Amino acid sequence: MNENSKRYLQEFKLYIEIEKNFSKHTVTAYSSDILSFLVWLNEKNIEEVNYANIKEYLLYIKQFNYSKTTTARKIASLRTFYRFLYREKIIETNPALGVHSPKKGKSLPEFLTENEIEQVLNNIKMESPAGYRNRTILELLYATGMRISELSNLNFENLNLEENEIKVFGKGSKERIVLVSERAKKYLESYIKTARYLIFKSEENSPKSPVFINKTGYRLQPQSVRLAIKDVMERIELPKHVTPHVFRHSFATKLLENGADLRVVQELLGHSSISNTQIYTHVSAERLRQSYNIAHPRAN
Q1: Active-site residue 245, yes or no?
Q2: Domains of the chain, first to last
Q3: DSSP E strands, 5-133
Q4: Has 171 been annotated as catalytic?
């Protein structure tokens, strides 16, 4: 990779991070994708790349058998990179214009029933302060539909428990308010009053202090929550792959099944487009169909 390519990569990273306001996860993924592409180009100049070169690169990465989602992201990275180069007048024509992402098959999101949710929650070992913290986290994920990254980034200034509200910052730092059930609120208040102090003995918490911490007093990272869920799932027989995001799916599915308006669910989830929320209507419809087939004597 030549020096110009290294410079363009750094400028591109700043562009998507600051100007486009992409999430940290997306910035890291896109930067990694473009780095791989530039390494593949070797010493070839960016300005010399044409449509045929990009197609050749896509054939090259095909051998790695990436999922359609990963391939689509890599193509999106390339298209964003070349739009940036064209806008900055580094290139005269955009060779990625004719490149399209593969069609992704629509799969219904995994979710848990109320009984399955209770089964998971009731099998969390709560004898330790960390166990109580983990129970509180999963209660909140199911009650609010928050992303795990949003929950990890919560500070005390984001809590308005008198009104059962929490302010979160979603993708692109978009701010929204999520609502907290009384049950989840009680767990959260109890965690703050007792368990949090036992995890790390801090005399005072400022508005900027993280709500959820590890034993060293630093902000709890999403991976720790994933490990806590994995620990529970290894102890119960539940034939589903459960991640923090499954709690978000379960939250949305339950709201729609109980008659919530699609636009309300969209707002609570922080989806920029209602098309992202509509997948949950398919989940609800599928469950209705299954119930019908089981319960109706003439269904089959």
Answers
A1: yes
A2: 3-87 (1.10.150.130), 114-294 (1.10.443.10)
A3: none
A4: yes
